[in-house]
Amino acid sequence: MSFTRNNLFTFFTLFFFFFFVNVDHSLQSNTFSISNINPLSPQASLRRHWSRLFPSITIPGFLLSKSSPLNASQVAVFSNYLHSGNLHSHFPSFCSAANLFCDFSNSPLFNHHHLHANTEFKNYKNMEFKKYQKECLLSGQSFKNYSSGENVGHDFFSNYGQENTGSREEFTGYAGKTNVGGSGFTNYATDSNGEASDFKLYGGQSNLQGHQFKNYGSDSSAGVQSFTSYSEDSNVVKHGFKAYGSKANAILNQFSSYSTQSNMAKNEFKLYNEAGNGAIDLFKGYAGATNVGKNEFQAYDVVANGGVEQFMGYGGDGANVPKNVFKSYGKGTNTPVEIFTNYGNSSGPSTTKFVEYGKDAIGVASTKFSTYLGNETSSSFKDYFNSVTSFNGYNNTSSTSSVEPGKFFRRRDITEGKVIVMPDIRDKMPKRSFLPRALAKLLPMRSGVFMSKMPEAKTVIDRTIWECERAGAKGETKRCVSTIEEMSEFASEMIGKRARVRTTESTVGSGMEVEVRKVKGGEEVKVVSCHQSMFPYLVYYCHAVPRVEGYEVEVKVVGMKEEMVNVGVVVCHVDTSEWSEGHEAFMALGFGPGKIEVCHWIYENDLAWFPW
């Protein structure tokens, strides 16, 4: 009887499954005897590969702990699913067994669930919520918390208080303090009449999120609306707020803050009070104190009538290196009283662009634009129109910015006996494992398997792929790796067979004052640094750059009764001539590209390879 390729694959799959189930489960231990490891397991294969690359060096336990927990039979089974195109049917079990970061919470607990009348809803977590209090009369509504403090959340809230009349609404919190979630809020108080609406917090103190809020108070009449906070203190996010008070009549709108004090954010606010009538609008803050952001505000009070409007801040209060684009303010308005207080008060180099203010406005307008602050990099204010105007200042300036203490420092700061501040080096990413090499070949980053099962993760996945595929900087050799074998091969190519991988031992001293006790190293050597990237399986961005010094630094926490000691890894870049002038290091330390060396810690779970 002849066997096809699929028959042979199935045969070997069953063979592995029945005869190789006793596999080493002690991945955390570096002292576990190799004789106890199944020779066909992924870990045994990894150890053999390591021995060929580094015959005189034992693979360290902290690196081995990141290897795949899958055994030989599991690898064979999941490989078969991939070959047959059937992995999607076993996706949850695959993610769990392989210790991946996957979100398969798309089966909503509250699918098509409706709440009516005078309803109080206190806590709801981590699912899809379709409708809350739709088409109600004279109701009192209170929704206190939605997915607060959740990790790995996929949240979707479709409707709240839609088409209501004469009601008082209060929504206290949505997706606050969540990590690595995709959050979407579609409608709040749309098509409502005579209601007082209060939305207090959306996505505050969240990490690695994609936030999208589509409509608030659109097509509403005679209401008092207050939106207090949207994505403040968030890290590495893409924010999208599509409409607020659009086509509203005679309402008092107050939007207090949007994405202030956020890091590495792409912010997009599309419409605020478009075609509104008789509105009193107050927008207090947008992207203030944001770091490395692209801020885009497309329209504020377009074609509005009889409004008293005040926009207090955009991209200001010490935003660092933002690209700010404000497209239109008060365009085509009738008899507005408009006050725009602050735009682009950046503390670092930025690109600021304000396209239109008060253009085509009709009637006797009272318009005041207080400050427009760019810097020496790029500033543009294209059109400012009105009959009665007051424009207080257009400034082109720059200043230094406050960067987290201890994030960057000079070589002289790591001398014995010196007290320095250690930054927050704690790993904020979810725990994941590498893929075994056999599966990594079948699941490249662009395979599309994860995005098809987790569409909410598309933005994060696309960003990591882009970062991995972009060309390296001048003198940089880079590679993204999804297996320990790939990482060790890259280190061997860059450094040779003497390469040794190191990491900071713990998070002791993180965010505290520490005293330098011992310093090892200091030679200018070839160093490979590997930093985690966000992806369902463990991916590291590894790169080698010229002229780098490596150190191991023992520190003791200052002011503690019990001695608390850590041994951290420090990398000092001797040549910074190719760095951007707007780099945070120069904001913190002064000087500029090529004028000083810059040192930084290797954070928790990041890695550095040295030739010693």
UniProtKB/TrEMBL annotation:
It comes from the Eukaryota. Residues 408-612 form the BURP domain. Residues 1-26 form the signal peptide. Pfam families: BURP. PROSITE patterns: BURP. InterPro entries: BURP_dom, PG-associated_BURP. Keywords: Glycoprotein, Signal. PANTHER family: POLYGALACTURONASE 1 BETA-LIKE PROTEIN 2. This is Polygalacturonase 1 beta-like protein 2.
